[in-house]
Amino acid sequence: MKTLLLLALSSLLVTPAGAQTTAAPSTFITLGTMAGPIPSAVRSQPANLLLTGDQAILIDAGDGAAEQLAKAGVALTRIHTIFLSHMHFDHIGGLFAVLGMRFQINSPGVVTVYGPPGTKRLVDGLVAASQPFAESGAGIPGQILRHPEDSVAVVEITGGQTVTVGNVRVTATTNTHYSYPEGSADAARFQSLSFRFDLPGRSIVYTGDTGPSVNVERLARGADLLVCEVIDPDAAIASILRVTPNIPPPALAIIRQHMTEQHLTPDQVGKLARAAGVGELVLTHNALRDDGAEQAKATIAQAYSGTVAIAHDLDRF
Predict the structure, then answer these.
(1) Which domains does the chain have, with CATH numbers?
(2) CA distance 171 to 221
(3) Through-space distance between the first and last CA atoms of the chain, rounded to whole angstroms
(4) Distance between CA 151 and CA 80 in Å, rounded?
(5) pLDDT at 144
(6) pLDDT of 1
């Protein structure tokens, strides 16, 4: 694992200023658009796929990500790069399946997982969980499998860092989905990231989960496409109460504070898109009422005059 980590780190290249690149078609696929972690019969958990040239980059890996890739017609063997925005289960719950299935079918090469502090601990745990399968030789006497850690590398990144993967320049910034005091040890240890993907001829920003954030506004400035979370706090809390109706009042108060301060309402999304001057807006991590889509778009339109789409699973942009 250490060797792979060093190899992955050595591949981080910042694109020189003024460098010329050749435009290539790109597609952003919203594999899973549910606001988790409550399972849904009609939406998968948060996951996205960026296709550009011969690259297939998985962005977050919520539960069901492997199946959604299959539905999108993308083989697991094509996935060599994964970006994780933060460590909440709805964004990482499908990572074990993606890594495990790649290992089980002996996918060539190494998949590199980029993510905030804590990503290495997460992946190390999944590698350890793969050991019983690997040591059994898949149940075939005498078969020796490579070690699971030889199939994955980890690069931990923090807000302000930029890495280059193939023809994609990726910039990360911290957002306000976590609210640890700025400059504290916890703020350094636990980070929620938003990403900007600068491609030849196109720029895409993925907010991940965030509340109102000056950092995200700066990151998204002038982007062609903003893929942004959206929430109706009351609808989200009602959904939680349907599943766990006996939540103690103090715990419910914490949930309500999280929903109202660390996510974005349609009004806040519209203001972000306008301030950043983005070309197009796509809403995902959908935590709206079933009948709230048109009202959300109308609210956003009060601030933002560009194109707005509410994504469904497997939509392409």
Answers:
(1) 2-10+25-316 (3.60.15.10)
(2) 13
(3) 36
(4) 10
(5) 66
(6) 42
- Supply the angle between the helices 233-243 and 249-261 in degrees, to the nearest 10: 140
Q: Average pLDDT in the 32-60 region?
A: 95
Phi, psi of 269 (to 5 degrees): -65, -45
Distance separating alpha carbons of residues 160 and 106, to the nearest angstrom: 35
Phi and psi based region of residue 203 (left: phi greater than 0; alpha: psi -120 to 50; beta: remaining): beta
Query: Rounded CA gap, 282 and 97, in Å?
Result: 27
What gap in Å lies between CA 146 and CA 40, rounded to an integer? Answer: 36
Q: Which residue has the tokens 């290495």?
A: 120
The Cα–Cα gap between 119 and 113 comes to 8
Band of pLDDT at residue 198, cut at 50, 70 and 90: very high
The whole-angstrom separation of Cα 145 and Cα 112 is 20
Q: Cα–Cα distances in Å, from 182 out to 119, 158, 185, 189, 275? A: 21, 14, 9, 11, 23
Beta bridge partners of 193: 174
Rounded mean pLDDT of 93-107? Answer: 95
Strands 307-310 vs 315-316: parallel, antiparallel or unpaired: unpaired
